[in-house]
C-alpha cells in the first residue's frame, strides 16, 4: 500500500527507526493484498496495547457487511486514550459504521459520495483529499492516503523529514488535505478552450433540470452553431449528446451506489419518464437500469461469498 511506504521511508531517512509497524486483521483469517499477496496478520484484538496510531484499511464495505461487535467500543476506547485512528480507502466507512465519527467531517471519494451520504447521513461527508480532526483522520483513497500520512509525519517529526520522505518516494508536491480530489476540468477535457469549459461546467451544474443547447450557447455568449463547432473540434461530439452522456453516467453512478428507486434516479438526472430514461440508458450501456443494478448486486453477492 503506498501510504505504508511513508512510514517505511521515514524509518530509512531518520537517524533511528521511528515507527514499529504491525499488520493486523479484524478476524483470525488470512488477507489478500491488492497485489495478490496472501498475508497472515495477527488479530487486532491480540496486538500489543500502547500503539500510537491505528490505520484502518478496507477495499470496500457493502451495506450488508458485518463488523465484529467488539470493534466499535474498542475504537471509542482507543480514541479516548489519544490514539490516532485513521480510515484509508473504505476505512472511513468502517469508522462511520462503528459510530465513532459522530457529526465530524469525513473525506470520501467523489465516486462514493452519494452512497456514503445515504448510508451515514449523520456524518458530514466532504470531497477533500483528507481530513484530520485531532486524533481522527480519514482519506478519500488513492494517493490522498499518502498525502495524509505525509501530513501526519510532518506534524510528528517535522517538515524537513517529511520533505525527505516525499523526495525519497519521488513525490513532487505534497498536497494539503483541503485540495479538491478531481483534476481541473480543462485537464479532464484535454482542452483549455474557455467557451468549452464554461459550457461543460453549466452542464455538470444542471443535471436534474437540463438546459437546451440554445440556452447554454446564450450563457457562454456564442451562437448555437459556434458551440456545436467547438464541441465537434475538441470532443468529437455535439453538445446535446455530450450532455446526455453526462446525465446517464451520473444516473449509473447513483444506480450502482445508492438504493434510490430507478424512477427517482431518472428524475434526478433530468428524465421526465421511466420509459425515456430506460430507453436512453439501454442505448448508452446496452442494458436497462434494472438489469444493470441486478447484475451489480449479483456480482457483489458472488464476491462476498468468495
From TrEMBL:
PANTHER family in UniProt: ARAC-FAMILY TRANSCRIPTIONAL REGULATOR (PTHR43280), HTH-TYPE TRANSCRIPTIONAL ACTIVATOR RHAS (PTHR43280:SF28)
Organism this protein belongs to: Pseudomonas abyssi
Key word Lipid metabolism present: no
Statement: the UniProt record of this protein carries the keyword DNA-binding: yes
The entry's keywords: Activator, DNA-binding, Transcription, Transcription regulation
Entry protein name: AraC family transcriptional regulator
MF annotations from Gene Ontology: DNA-binding transcription factor activity; sequence-specific DNA binding
GO biological process: positive regulation of metabolic process
Residues of the HTH araC/xylS-type domain: 197-295
Amino acid at each position: 500500500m503506498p501510504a505504508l511506504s511513508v512510514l517505511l521511508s521515514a524509518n530509512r531517512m531518520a537517524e533511528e527507526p521511528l515507527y514499529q509497524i504491525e499488520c493486523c486483521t479484524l478476524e483470525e483469517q488470512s488477507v489478500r493484498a491488492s497485489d495478490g499477496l496472501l498475508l497472515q496478520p495477527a488479530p487486532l484484538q491480540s496486538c500489543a496495547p500502547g500503539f500510537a496510531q491505528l490505520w484502518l484499511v478496507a477495499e470496500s464495505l457493502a451495506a450488508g457487511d458485518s463488523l465484529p461487535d467488539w470493534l466499535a467500543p474498542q475504537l471509542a476506547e482507543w480514541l479516548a486514550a489519544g490514539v490516532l485512528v485513521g480510515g484509508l480507502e473504505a476505512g472511513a466507512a468502517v469508522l462511520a459504521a462503528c459510530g465513532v465519527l459522530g457529526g465530524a467531517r469525513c473525506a470520501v471519494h467523489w465516486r462514493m459520495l452519494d452512497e456514503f451520504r445515504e448510508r451515514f447521513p449523520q456524518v458530514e461527508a466532504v470531497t477533500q483529499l483528507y481530513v484530520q480532526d485531532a486524533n481522527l483522520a480519514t482519506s478519500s483513497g488513492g494517493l490522498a492516503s499518502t498525502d495524509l500520512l505525509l501530513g501526519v509525519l510532518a506534524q510528528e517529526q517535522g517538515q524537513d523529514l517529511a520533505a525527505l520522505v516525499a523526495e525519497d518516494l519521488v513525490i513532487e508536491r505534497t498536497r494539503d488535505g483541503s485540495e479538491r480530489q478531481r483534476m481541473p476540468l480543462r485537464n479532464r477535457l484535454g482542452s483549455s478552450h474557455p467557451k468549452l469549459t464554461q459550457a461543460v461546467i453549466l452542464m455538470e451544474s444542471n443535471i436534474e433540470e437540463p438546459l437546451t443547447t440554445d440556452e447554454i450557447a446564450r450563457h457562454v455568449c456564442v451562437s448555437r452553431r459556434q458551440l456545436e463547432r467547438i464541441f465537434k473540434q475538441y470532443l468529437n461530439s455535439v453538445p446535446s449528446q455530450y450532455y446526455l452522456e453526462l446525465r446517464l453516467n451520473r444516473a449509473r453512478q447513483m444506480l450502482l451506489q445508492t438504493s434510490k428507486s430507478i424512477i427517482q434516479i431518472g428524475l434526478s438526472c433530468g428524465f421526465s419518464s421511466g420509459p425515456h430514461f430506460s430507453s436512453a440508458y439501454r442505448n448508452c450501456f446496452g442494458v436497462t437500469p434494472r438489469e444493470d443494478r441486478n447484475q451489480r448486486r449479483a456480482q457483489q453477492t458472488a464476491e462476498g461469498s468468495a
